[in-house]
Design goal:
Length: 359
Amino acid sequence: MRKLVCTAVILLLGTFAFAIELPLFQKSARMLEDAQFAFDSGEYGKALLIAEEAKLLRHTEAKNALDTLNEALRPQEVQDAGDDVTAIITVLQARDVYDVVELIEYMRNLHGGMYFEHSVSEMVNHLEDKKIFPEASHLLAKIYEFEGEYELSLSHYTDAWNNADVLDIPESKFDILYDMANLSYNFNDYENCEKALMLIISHDSYYTNNGFTNALVNSIQRGYSADKVFNLYRSDCYRSIPAFYKLTELYVEQGRHQEAFKMSLFGTLTSFTRMNFFLENRVTEFHYGSLEEFFTIAVDNYELAEWSMEQGFWRCFYRLADLGSQLYPENLDFAQELFVVIGQTAPENYWRQLAIGKL
């Protein structure tokens, strides 16, 4: 891999000399697609070279566009027009600077006028930001991870996350964090694993709502039954589910049982909310009656049963019951209800038998 990196650097020492081409950034995006295809095909050296080249090309595309725009904005006549996009376009048209007019119109049409708040300065800032290509850093991180280069991989994941604001698809920042967490866990770096997972759930409006969180946890301390808890509360930030599951297991391994219980509670509740939404929209006249009835119907649905097993729901559900029985002996009925439900409805015999053994 070290030799491969050196080869990549040598091949990429040349500089690009591209004029502005619209649609902007399409070439670098296609190049990254080629790198991803090479990676998926097991051609890791090729993927590395193309991904590095895509980063350089993206920088050059943005720099060329930025230099051209700044040059067009430099004359006093243009500066006197202020910062409003429409006013700037009028002056540029009068000066026959149509290539820059096309660039401005392209950016405005691509993102919408309000994206830049009708400000040419915001367009300049946007092009400056676009010199960075976090999607390429993300792929490079995965390549180095596959090669066992932990530090290099973590460095590229960190770079991708630090520049997540520039991502074409904002939600893909969570993919970066999940990949970073898996990398750290696989290399026994549990601190960075926890940090990445906590960053994911820090964007969960239910988890970060202290009123909601306290009410949910305190309901068990106050003696609420499992049926009542799952009837009262919902949490539909579904992207958080794997993070809650993984944090549950991480905290169990570290003996941090109170934190593990909280994560298992949120993981189970969010998964339950997703399954409940699915049934409400797929099963005629479905309504939540009891927890046991709910999961009997849920696991009878092939799609939900498969999803629950693939996601690791039943492990998390069992953790909730087991930790609840240890931490809240004053409300043993809560845990016992869960053990009964798992023992009677879990599609995996392993969890059914474990739960039955607790009854």
